[in-house]
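Fold it.
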Amino acid sequence: MSDDLNKQIFKEEAYDLLSELEGALLELEENPHDMDVVNQIFRALHTIKGSGSMFGFEDIAEFTHEVETVFDMVRNSDLGVTPALCSLALKSRDYIKLMLDSDVQGEEVDSTLRSEILTGLKKLASGGEEASEDELTPEVTGDDESAEVEEAAPAQEHDYRIVLTAKPDAEVDESMLESLFEELVKLGEFKVVKRPDDSPDAPGPRSWECALVSNIGKDNVSDVFFFVDADLNIDISESGDEAVVEKKEVPPPAPTPKDVPAEEPVQTGATLKEEDMGEDEAPRRLGEYLVETGDVTQEDIQEALKKQKPLGQILAEDGKIEPEKIDQVVKKQAAVKEREASKRRQEALSSIRVAADKLDYLVDLVGELVIVQAQITQVVSERSDPQMTALAEELERLSDELRDSTLGIRMLPIGTSFSKFKRLVRDLSSELGKEIGLRTSGEDTELDKTVIERLGDPLVHLLRNSLDHGIETPEERTAAGKPPQGTIFLSAEHSGGEVLIRITDDGRGMAKEMIREKAIERGLITKDTEMSEKDLLKLIFEPGFSTAKEVTNVSGRGVGMDVVKRAIDSLRGTIDIDSKPGAGTTITIRLPLTLAIIDGLQVRVEDEYYVIPLSLVEECVELARQEVDENDSGQRILHLRGEIVPYIHIRDWFGIEGDNPPIEQIVITGVEGSRVGIVVDTVIGEHQTVIKSLSRVYKDVEGISGATIKGDGSIALILDIPSLVRRVIAESR
């Protein structure tokens, strides 16, 4: 594998780890005592550091090592989790991403920021007073732009004994070992004390014994072997770690419930350093040491272990606990182990990283296959050949399964998009001087990756508006009888063939009278215009519309909501607003699951064929010539079961020549709560539609969003129903 490919793989994995790291840091800020999250952060940093060093990203490895060291202190309870630490860690995450981006784009990284972050981390690690967030970027003085960070006090030196033992029947690559030794030389005074005897008659497994004198910690020595893929048993011990057999047996400490063993006994007679092993690990390490020194054999150790009693049996015989209770604990522990094992098996399921363009090409091929299958089905239907009909039906079944499977590959949990918004809310609420929390649900809801990618910017706009316009300041909320901290709730759920995304805040709500005044001021409506509450709220999506009293770096320029509307429309989605003064606002977005293949309703006008997205179709009714009616403004309307429904003729819209048939068909569509009829000559039926993009000449034609290829090879245009509905509603005002 080439170095360039290795580096590319590292970058992709590093970006994923940085995303995971950001989410974990935000979670840690909310739950400072959650050690599982601390370990998750440490593992992410550890992997970035190790992989970065392996693939030549030394700057990233060195910087990440400093951050990892601080979280190692947190992991060992030597340093507490504070808002200042979380803020610095988030800045560190951003700086690592900046270094990755600069390597991709060939830009220089500001070394001053690096110094500021490391200075802040060292201040926290040294036990200094907790810095406020504003103090976390100390001023760097001096002419040198990359000011040196104050050196920490020299660390204590450690004497390490490293034993590498080949597993039975394993071949060890000597060149790989030499490269490991070169890495160890960089850590301090290193030498190989003993190498294996390579003669065929040499007894025992092959082993290498090394000595290292260094001022770095044991975990950092272990890092050298983190990515070693070799059949080696690696044992690292420090001077003073060796087990010492005592003449007097020492009773074991009382175990916690999770330490109660199911089968294995707890031994005594060894004292080892606490940081190197748990209480139940001492006998194992003692046995290994005695075997290594040649004092006893492995068989002697096994015989000795058989004579020991399980801890539960000892406690039961001493009358400390009932035997039934021991059985219950053992069964419970076994169940917990089984669940953990099942979880590990699930996490270990193999996966493969595939380039997005390859996946898009696969979807295109499946789309072409669906078109060819439709053509075959049409040709076969014109012939009375039972065998060909059976084959065509089998091909249709297989192509449907292949289509569903391929589209399923493109589906991703929308939570991958949700996670980045927590950081947005955290930083922006601090900037605005507000206390705002973000809660999410439905992160496992799956959506096409293309939809998720294009959905990011609209959601950012909506969240920024909720933060700036929706949620009040703590003082305003307290005066209104609300808790000082506001809440934004971001959720996703499946609804039929769509996904519903809701953004709900418990803020002040939208001032409808202010919206009306701004709309009159901008000439969007007149003073006499009567509008429903829903239509009035939709005015905020008009270009340049804003109710902000002052322009800030967050909002107020009237740019954003119209962009959101256009973006959602381009995804063939809809957006709806519900707001109550003093109670908050809910914005609901409806999106199709995929943009590649949709179910459509095929219609015809003269010799032209069109497709209407089936998700927008409510019903189909007939329209006789004598039922045609117009309102005072000349708009055509249909009286449908007591409801007035405006409609539009596709023949007139696209200027198709020919006479209207005596009885036409109206397809009633529903968009954002508004019903509009689409008049066509004939409704043909459902059609599986593979969406094809239009060329530049046609892509700006109003009322058309794409095209598809029919079974006979002809083209059918896909109607842009939302734009047609908006036109009809605008003409009715």
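The longest helix spans residues 3-30.
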